[in-house]
């Protein structure tokens, strides 16, 4: 059995014994036998002490036990039954505890018993083992005992305590895991991490990155330094400490520090002061400045290229329209009756080509206009009126195709947006839903919904049309002139324009579609 008495237990017993002795010394003459009344008072005081002991045991989750080895009799305190969750009807026994101990710890338990009752060998000062109660709870137990031996050295009696230290063990395990995580973090972060005394500057801890940052060859070498030697100017450290003591925490504090080879660098320090120590993170801001410079240069290059592309697109979309219109006009003036059949065919092909080019330039012009309109003012728009007008414009096609349109949008619903954009978005979505209906389906329907959320306007247009395999075409979804079925109408422009308009509005667009199952387009626009 676990023969371990905790320090708290021994201290408690000493206090009780001391209290009784003090009581006797103060109240009685020990050379003289106590009277009957005195014995009653002693017994009452003993009951109080027993109560104190019982209460302290419960608070400490501690129990005591006694084993008369000669008579092979074992007695337990009430707390033993509570800790091990055993019934008092079973009675105290070594085996009833051993049965609860998990297999890995049983050998320590058996070894402690054998050494306690043997004549030779050191007695374990303390052992710990784990038990699993009948209710399935895992507990950590600490135990200690004292052996009383007879004149021949045989174990006569053993008295001891056990304590449920589950909470302490779990806390220790948590702290150990936290420590391991901290060590892993400090060694993997690309930042110098350190801890130092605020008054003396003695360095207590550094990670590997700190050694690299300051050019130190080893941790031992670095710990022999002090933080004042790391500053290029001693006055800088005084200013740093003064501000830290004042604010208790510093963020992105810039100061010039020295490496071991004498070179210096501008560092950014994030740190806090706690219990007379500085806990901080250091990184070389010159690296950050270089990255920022490269990023700004790249942004500038991209902006310049984007401006050039927009200018080129503007030139193409505007400057070509006039000569193209002239060509289209000239083809209309040609007297086709005077032409041979071959020339008539050439003129017709020329007309088709110029019309197609005109459509492309119109598309390009519309896309350029989206970019040019990004600075337009936001205003409150009656979204219900826009939807009603679009449905009215397509009424002939809706009736001929027998399409049922359902909408939860009322005439009072408003959206704070750019008028031309929201009109273009709804026009493209509803037009596509009408255009790509499924002729094979008996019931053709389009659902339009609008919802104001805390931070967004949500617009959905859903149809049960022909659909397409959206998952297989994710990368092509919002590209210009992308068509997923060459037999269907359209030029692959509408969704591209919608995507650009949503982007300019800093919104999100998602498409869910499956062949012959229909399409659902969801748009989220930020509320301003």
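Sequence proposed for the structure above (528 residues):
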């Amino acid at each position: 059995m676990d023969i371990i008495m905790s320090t708290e237990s021994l201290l408690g017993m000493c206090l009780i014994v001391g209290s009784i002795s003090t009581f006797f010394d103060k109240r009685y003459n020990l050379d003289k036998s106590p009277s009957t009344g005195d014995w009653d008072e002693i017994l009452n005081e003993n009951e109080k002490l027993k109560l104190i002991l019982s209460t302290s045991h419960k608070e400490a989750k501690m129990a005591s036990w006694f084993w008369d080895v000669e008579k092979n009799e074992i007695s337990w305190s009430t707390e033993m039954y509570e800790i091990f969750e055993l019934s008092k009807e079973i009675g105290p026994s070594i085996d009833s505890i051993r049965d609860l101990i998990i297999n890995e710890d049983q050998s320590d338990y058996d070894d402690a018993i054998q050494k306690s009752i043997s004549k030779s060998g050191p007695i374990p000062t303390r052992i710990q083992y784990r038990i699993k109660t009948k209710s399935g709870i895992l507990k950590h137990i600490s135990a200690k005992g004292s052996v009383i031996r007879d004149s021949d050295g045989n174990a006569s009696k053993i008295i001891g305590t056990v304590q449920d230290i589950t909470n302490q063990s779990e806390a220790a395990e948590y702290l150990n895991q936290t420590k391991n995580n901290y060590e892993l973090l400090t060694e993997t972060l690309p930042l110098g991490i350190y801890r130092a005394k605020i008054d003396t500057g003695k360095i207590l801890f550094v990670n590997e990155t700190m050694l690299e940052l300051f050019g130190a060859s080893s941790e031992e070498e670095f710990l022999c330094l002090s933080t004042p030697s790391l500053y290029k100017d001693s006055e800088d450290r005084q200013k740093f400490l003064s501000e830290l003591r004042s604010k208790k925490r510093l963020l992105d504090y810039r100061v010039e520090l020295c490496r071991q080879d004498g070179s210096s660098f501008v560092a950014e320090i994030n740190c806090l002061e706690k219990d007379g120590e500085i806990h901080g993170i250091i990184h070389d801001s010159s690296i950050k400045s270089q990255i920022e410079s490269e990023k700004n240069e790249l942004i500038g290059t991209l902006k310049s290229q984007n401006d050039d592309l927009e200018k080129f697109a503007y030139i193409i979309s505007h400057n070509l329209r006039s000569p193209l219109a002239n060509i289209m006009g000239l083809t209309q003036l040609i007297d086709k009756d005077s032409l041979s059949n071959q020339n008539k065919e050439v003129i017709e092909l020329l007309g088709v080509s110029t019309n197609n080019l005109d459509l492309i330039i119109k598309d390009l012009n519309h896309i350029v206009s989206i970019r040019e309109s990004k600075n337009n003012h936001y205003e409150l728009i009656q979204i219900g009126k826009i939807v009603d007008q679009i449905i009215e414009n397509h009424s002939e096609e809706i009736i001929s195709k027998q399409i049922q349109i359902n909408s939860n949008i009322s005439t009072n619903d408003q959206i704070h947006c750019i008028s031309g954009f929201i009109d273009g978005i709804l026009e493209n979505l509803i037009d596509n839903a009408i255009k790509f209906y499924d002729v094979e389906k008996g019931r053709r329907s389009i659902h339009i919904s609008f919802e104001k959320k805390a931070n967004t306007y949500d617009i959905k247009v859903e149809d049960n049309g022909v659909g397409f395999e959206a998952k297989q075409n994710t990368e092509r979804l919002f590209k210009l002139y992308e068509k997923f079925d060459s037999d269907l109408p359209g030029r692959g422009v509408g969704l591209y324009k919608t995507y650009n308009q949503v982007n300019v509005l800093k919104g999100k667009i998602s498409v869910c579609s499956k062949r012959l199952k229909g399409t659902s387009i969801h748009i989220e626009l930020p509320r301003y």
